[in-house]
Please model this.
Amino acid sequence: MATELRIFAVRGIAEAAAGDRPGALVADAIEAAQLPVADGDVIVIAQKLVSKAEGAVVALRDISPSAEARAWAGTYGRDAEVTEVVFQEARRIVRMERGVIIAETRHGFICANAGVDSSNVAPGHVTLLPRDPDGSARRARDILETRFGCRVATIVADTFGRPWREGVVNVALGVSGLRPLDDLRGRMDRHGRRLHSTVVAIADELASAAELVMGKTAGVPAAIVRGAGEWIGDGVGTALVRPAEMDMFR
Amino acid sequence: MATELRIFAVRGIAEAAAGDRPGALVADAIEAAQLPVADGDVIVIAQKLVSKAEGAVVALRDISPSAEARAWAGTYGRDAEVTEVVFQEARRIVRMERGVIIAETRHGFICANAGVDSSNVAPGHVTLLPRDPDGSARRARDILETRFGCRVATIVADTFGRPWREGVVNVALGVSGLRPLDDLRGRMDRHGRRLHSTVVAIADELASAAELVMGKTAGVPAAIVRGAGEWIGDGVGTALVRPAEMDMFR
Model:
């Protein structure tokens, strides 16, 4: 367990356009800002940057809303085209009440609007979640490791709401080079008692930690977390999605 | 938004006993370790330390399990006395399946076993959540501010599971001296578009960040987060509990 963790905001990242490589945009900004990168660093990248670079952006003028999307949008003062994109991105609607749509995406994430988002994107457009966030994380890691010549991990992260608690927190959608879950089962506590059911979602805690320097309006879509090297290893973000048959809240 | 966040583990905190003041235990360890404390620091303290100091510990030999607790414990290989304490701590059972009890506490928290926990406590005992986590945070803050002569915030935190995602993450139960939610609604994004529904649970993200240096087995029940001064202010942890009538997953 590290004694100290440091989290550096990566400022000056260029606005991403379709065809950009997110890892290269982040690496360029890290170099320009002369930020250190070292073995064991975890680099957290905002989903929004990745989605734009991967072209996961939809022009609303190209969308023809269904009758259901029009009805919902009309009832709750929402945009019919955005609602239609949400329906298309949803593998399953989990809740749909009072103007709020909670949906399961094709990845298995359960989140508001199936991850469709109109903030920090050009007017008339929305972003979708990356098709394969683990692949996005892996490609960014390849670029960052080559550029800086050291072993790092990457997390592609987005802010999700939670049942029962107010506010959103950043969570890990895609992971590369990191054990996303730290399974303490079998370890002993301070009283020599075996810990039973403690699996800590390290990747989500790292994403949340990074968000504190990234923010929503600050235009800082990446951060470097130093001091988390003990979790460097193999793993993917899909391991954080609870299998449906194990979930009591679907 | 800070450019850098630093998180320091507070090592060497004495094992808490009933009657101890959590703030004093943490302050003593900070002084002994010669850690810096500065205006705007956020000090995260593990619930377990607070519960022990406040005497929120139950000796299982004093518990007479109900028939229902015995039946559940027998079916799933659980401890009948622990199950009985869970029932007593629960204001409402939210889910009770396959040996797992998700319950709402009297505070309104929804978590496994109503917060009753047998890890890192003497054999034959369990800890309960603090009666008033915001009060616990406030008392600890008073002590820390007096000792170090600066304005700090405190968070009393525990690891909770979440629906839909694997693993636990640290969240804020009690808060003092901090705005736990950062309401970005009304602010503009980079495209001059107003952000709609983005309220970030800063206190939970701070708790998760701190957990990365605290851990479950490491015996580090506190951490100092530096660089979060912008959220210093007035607020309490109860603001993080979503009111029942606003929650779609009860």
Notes: The first strand of chain A starts at residue 4 and ends at 9. Helices of chain A lie at 22-32, 47-53, 67-76, 80-89, 133-148, 202-214.
